[in-house]
Amino acid sequence: MDTEANPVKKIALRLTRVIVTTLISVLPATAQTASSALPQAQVTFYSHGVTALGGLPGHNPGAFKGRIFDEDHQLAFMEPGHFVTFNLAPGLHTFSATWWTAKHAKSGAHVLLNLVADQQYFIETMVLNSGFMFSNVNLFIKEVTCEGALQDNVRNKPLEPTHLRPDGVPLAVATTAFPQCP
Known about the structure:
The protein is of the alpha+beta class.
């Protein structure tokens, strides 16, 4: 029986198309809402402020200016003396800090963390110089305690939204003050 000759089949076919189209458009939004409702971990990244001797042997770490990645997803462009917090899914994450000129996470410093829901994590990004006159400058990224992070961030400011990257925008936590310890 041909659908053109049978009006009932013609209506059924149209109705099926409408239902399928509606499901295709609604399911991604439903999945996104469900995933954002799941418990998240909060991860705060920060960079030290600029100082005259920062990063030199025997002195405090130097200011980091560069890109922050979660795996291959660039979250933000970090500026010296700033911090930014993200809500991230629990599980294993490889975070990277790269020079501002680098386009990919592979070339940077890395730290692997297994995030637990409803926990707060603090990640310090820094530059250290182990040579003479900046001949051996290295990036470092590491997890620190909340107390250590608070001590490092007395004067730091929230990262401006313009420094968030498309992958980081929906994950960023809007705040005006550095997170407090539980």
